[in-house]
């Protein structure tokens, strides 16, 4: 049995208790870190194992030359026959991200909400003038960074790109990002995969944050874990309708992506089976807080100029 089979990416039973901070209310783990049984680390490692085994296929969907740094040394190099939905989602996200970022002129902003072991900043050919923000559990991110540094994989950021890690545990996520140079007045692309969430309420908190930070027209794409559909049998039956309403109520127009259709477009066979994950691509329809503030200041300036002109006429 391969490592990915021994530690499947289900997210349902391996995530610890979560605590919401007082600013942006993003939920963070309250568990103490133990590399042998930390649930966030196990979940991130399981996802890395899936990417590792996908890269071993004769005709892989993608290559992740760095995923092997995170899996145990005794991980077998067996080629898993069945196409895993996580890998199919990763391929779709990669392609959609690269296509969209190529259409942005000037400075580009990418925000990855991840499990701490996401290798996209290293393995994707991102254009110059790209600022990358990785929001993930700090302990897992540091563990992964040490693994990469100690390996001979040669992980390097693309030329002309800047990378910042924003700890999930930050007391004020918006302030932490703005301090590193993020601007809600510039286009941005937000990617969610592997990010630790337990309930739809957790996801709504993420949507609220992105709705405040993302400029109108920005892209938000990713994969919602199956556990969101499995926490409540009543919710499970209409999870897609609930998710669609959540997006719309937070100012996003969303498209739910069909896994079978994506597999067919790549010439792959895929049996969905009991896959309850939700793959999506959404567009921000509202203006960000930064845009609204800029317009407020401009209106105030026009109003002040008008008052001054009126005073001079008197």
Q: Indicate the proportion of strand residues.
A: 15-25%
The run of helices and strands is HEEHHEHEHEHEHEHHHEHEH
Structural class by sheet pairing and helices: alpha/beta
Determine the mean pLDDT.
84
- Provide the gyration radius in Å: 21 Å
Runs in which pLDDT lies below 50 for 5 or more consecutive residues are: 1-19
- Helix segment count? 12
Query: What general outline do the C-alpha atoms trace?
Result: globular
Percent of residues in helices: 40-55%
Kindly report how far apart the N and C termini lie: 87 Å
Major sheet strand order: 5-4-3-6-7-9-8
Total strands: 9
**Largest sheet at a glance?**
7 strands, mixed
What does this structure look like?
With 314 residues, the protein is of the alpha/beta class. It contains twelve helices and nine strands. It has helices at residues 3-6, 39-55, 85-101, 120-123, 138-150, 173-179, 200-213, 227-230, 233-236, 239-249, 259-265, 289-313, and strands at 18-20, 27-29, 108-113, 130-136, 161-167, 188-192, 219-224, 252-257, 278-284. The strands form two sheets. It has a seven-stranded mixed beta sheet, with helices on both faces. It has a two-stranded antiparallel ribbon with strand order 1-2. Strand 1 and strand 2 (27-29) form a beta hairpin. The longest helix is centred in the last third of the chain and has 25 residues, at 289-313. The model is unreliable at 1-19 (pLDDT under 50).
């Amino acid at each position: 049995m391969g490592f990915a089979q021994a530690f499947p990416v289900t997210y349902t039973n391996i995530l610890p208790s979560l605590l919401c901070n007082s600013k942006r209310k993003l939920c963070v783990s309250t568990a103490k870190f133990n590399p042998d049984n930390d649930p966030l680390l196990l979940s991130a490692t399981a996802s890395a194992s899936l990417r590792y085994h996908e890269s071993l296929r004769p005709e892989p969907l993608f290559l992740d030359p760095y995923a092997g740094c995170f899996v145990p040394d005794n991980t077998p190099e067996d080629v898993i026959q069945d196409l895993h939905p996580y890998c199919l989602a990763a391929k779709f996200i990669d392609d959609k991200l690269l296509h969209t970022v190529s259409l942005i002129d000037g400075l580009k902003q990418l925000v990855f909400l991840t499990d701490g072991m996401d290798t996209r900043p290293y393995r994707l050919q991102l254009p110059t003038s790209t600022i990358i923000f990785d929001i993930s559990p700090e302990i897992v991110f540091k563990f992964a960074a040490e693994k990469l540094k100690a390996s001979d994989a040669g992980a390097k950021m693309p030329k002309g790109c800047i990378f910042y890690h924003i700890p999930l545990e930050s007391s004020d996520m918006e302030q932490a990002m703005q301090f590193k140079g993020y601007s809600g007045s510039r286009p941005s692309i937000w990617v969610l995969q592997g990010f630790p969430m337990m309930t739809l309420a957790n996801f709504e908190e993420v949507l609220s944050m992105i709705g405040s930070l993302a400029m109108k027209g920005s892209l938000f794409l990713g994969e919602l874990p199956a556990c969101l559909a499995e926490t409540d049998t009543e919710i499970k039956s209409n999870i897609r309708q609930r998710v669609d309403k959540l997006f719309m109520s937070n100012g996003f127009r969303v498209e739910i992506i069909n896994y079978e259709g994506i597999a067919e477009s790549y010439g792959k066979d895929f049996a969905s089976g009991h896959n309850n994950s939700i793959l999506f691509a959404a567009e921000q329809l509202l203006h960000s807080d930064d845009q609204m503030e800029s317009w407020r200041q401009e209106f105030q300036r026009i109003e002040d100029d008008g008052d001054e002109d009126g005073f001079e006429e008197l």
